[in-house]
Structure prediction request, 369 residues.
Amino acid sequence: MWKLLGVTLFWPAVGMLGCSGPSASDDAHTDSATDTQQVPARNYDFVVRTLTIDDRYDVGVAHTGLNIDGLFSGPADADGCNHEDFFSRYDSDQHRPPGCAPMAHGGALLNSPSCAGGVDNQWLQIFNELQTGRPNVNMRTELLERIFGGQLTYLIRISEVNDVTTDPMVRVRVWEGYPQFVDCRSMFSGGAEFSVATSTLGPNGSNIDADALFNQPGRIEAGRLVVSHGAGAASIRLPVPAVLGGVFLPSPNGFALRDVRIRLTLSADGVTASDGVIAGWFVGENLIPLCICDDFHTYVNALLARIVDIRLPGSTVCVDRSIPENPQFGGVSAGVGFTAVRAIIRSQPAGARVPGMCGSEATDHDGGE
Prediction:
């Protein structure tokens, strides 16, 4: 189940000096008529360095995630499946009114008429449920170890960038990838090379840009990348941890999010990226094939009843049990945080890991810090 985030959620290389291609100073030219310097658009490529999953299901704490359903739900709001939304950790435009600051009371954040939170994120409930199956292992730490060890690699390319502070139109691609170096300690050096996994390209895809399954428009506002969801937007796979002997089967292909949105703050030099958010949702029934519980239906029904928080279009209820042997469940929101550093993404994709490289079975996976 670890191979997702999955997705995967669920997230690349910057070339020289934080971007691929020639430098702006090399290619800048002057228009003789206007005497205005024209700076060519650049690519900024990153590899994800950390993935974080909230651990406290507490509406009094700001959370990672975004407003998936467009609502600002309270605990008794049927449209929001009776789940009270969170305040955002990074993006106050996810509050109502946009930009408002929540009221603090006794160390907790409170929804009020003057400011309400809209963040939807039930992924931490899934992760915490899985954690109960492995009480002697910190699965959040294990997730980071898999990233440092090269077994879980997400690559991000932000292209057509004219200004890392403000740019109304950029293009964003996300792939899973493979390290192309032996020593995992060089993973986040800024010059490490990676190949894109062909599994994150379309059928028979060979061009990592044109064939990327996740290839969406975005914009940069005050240094923060914003990728909004769109109809038919490709998914990103979040990693799901294997819980052997527990209630969930390992999921080697990860867990795909729908209608993915991304937020990310870029450094002025394009070398690092911080305060990242990947968010989307999945249909509740997607959990069912993973469960190997003894009391299958009782367990899954109880779990989904707790976490479904997205009422699907055309449905009047979040959970439909009108046919007891075939209950229908709505959507489950998910959000993860991440950071990234520059790297180099090879133009040729790879269908598998190269033996002996970081992340392969024959390699020491200690990525260090």
Remarks:
- The longest strand covers residues 167-179.
- The chain has a mean pLDDT of 83.
